[in-house]
């Protein structure tokens, strides 16, 4: 079956000599792994590609092949023929990297999120049924006629694994497994990568986890679970900012919980909220009502208020969403 948006994206990449790939803020292995894989595929086709991330990578993310080549926006940077937003589709999602877009002749995206309420600002390839940008990237790189190297395979495997909770969330489909099987055949070392991503923690992470779990609050007949993390705890525990990723699962996984939230205080006084739901509630809608977004079962937003106030705000919003 013809996939016109995919073909249009491939054609744009084919026509470009220099391509900028932009990751979303608070990058995860989906946006980073997919961008690094595409960068490698573009270089194999004899062109130039640079991966931008406004935020630094965590130590864990340094396992991505080519992680050290990811750069932040530099005003001396020359221009690009094409800019591709990866795992997002709105310039507001790439933070300071948005300045790169001013230097691109054309801008497009590859994304699997629900579109922002403000509407599309450019054309690109969106597939909200895809588990991950990584899964879409498998198809794109295929279409480009570039073979999967072991590093492309490893990066895409980590991208897909991250967004599917290692093939456990409801976004995991037969197609997800087909893509993963292909990546394994191309040399992705599943045991090594999953050990590194999920079975290898630090003392700092474990201390922080203990702190965060001690904040657990259950509301609305235990259907809403809330966790929080004060910024000062990171230093006190010896943990890194990105290490809170995944902690929300401890709240989500509790039997009977329908909506889980974790509120993370940032260095600048704003609070990052992650939301998850199991069956009924559309957390993308809740996040969008605060200017955020994401997916039906996983979304996020930012609240510009003190942590305690943000908690009260979220408790109210989440309980209300359950009553609807
Ligand atoms: P997480 O809670 O893991 O940070 O994010 C869950 C999902 O929601 C991810 O797919 C992420 O890209 C998306 N997301 C998180 N925060 C925001 C936000 O502020 N705006 C939008 N549009 N999407 C977000
Ligand atoms: Mn993603």
TrEMBL record:
SUPFAM superfamilies reported for this sequence: DHH phosphoesterases
Gene3D superfamilies to which the protein is assigned, alphabetical: 3.10.310.30, inorganic pyrophosphatase (n-terminal core)
GO molecular function, one term: nucleic acid binding
Top-level lineage group: Bacteria
Domain DHHA1, residue spans: 238-322
Record domain DDH: where: 19-160
PANTHER family xref list: BIFUNCTIONAL OLIGORIBONUCLEASE AND PAP PHOSPHATASE NRNA
Descriptive protein name: Bifunctional oligoribonuclease/PAP phosphatase NrnA
């Amino acid at each position: 079956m013809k996939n016109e948006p995919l073909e249009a994206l491939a054609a744009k990449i084919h026509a470009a000599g220099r391509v900028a790939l932009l990751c979303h803020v608070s990058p995860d292995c989906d946006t980073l792994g997919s961008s690094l894989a595409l960068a490698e595929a573009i270089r194999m086709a004899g062109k130039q590609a640079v991966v931008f991330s406004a935020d630094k990578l965590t130590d864990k993310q340094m396992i991505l092949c080519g992680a050290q080549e990811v750069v932040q926006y530099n005003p001396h940077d020359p221009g690009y023929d094409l800019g591709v937003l990866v795992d997002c589709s709105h310039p507001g999602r790439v933070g300071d990297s948005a300045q790169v877009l001013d230097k691109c002749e054309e801008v497009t995206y590859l994304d699997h999120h629900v579109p922002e309420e403000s509407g599309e600002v450019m054309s690109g390839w969106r597939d909200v049924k895809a588990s991950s940008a990584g899964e879409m990237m498998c198809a794109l790189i295929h279409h480009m006629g570039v073979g999967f190297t072991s590093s492309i395979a490893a990066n895409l495997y980590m991208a897909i694994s991250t967004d599917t909770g290692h093939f456990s969330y409801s976004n995991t489909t037969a197609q997800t497994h087909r893509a993963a099987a292909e990546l394994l055949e191309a040399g992705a070392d599943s045991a090594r990568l999953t050990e590194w991503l999920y079975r290898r923690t630090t003392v700092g992470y474990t201390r922080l986890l203990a702190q965060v779990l001690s904040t657990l609050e259950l509301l609305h007949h235990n259907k809403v679970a809330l966790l929080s993390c004060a910024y000062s705890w990171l230093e006190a525990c010896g943990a890194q900012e990105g290490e809170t990723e995944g902690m929300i699962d401890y709240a989500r996984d509790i039997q009977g919980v329908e909506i889980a939230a974790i509120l993370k205080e940032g260095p600048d006084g704003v609070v990052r909220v992650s939301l998850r739901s199991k069956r009924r509630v559309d957390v993308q809608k809740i996040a969008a009502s605060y200017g955020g977004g994401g997916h039906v079962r996983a979304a996020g937003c930012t609240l510009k208020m003190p942590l305690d106030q943000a908690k009260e705000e979220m408790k109210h919003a989440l309980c209300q969403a359950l009553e609807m």
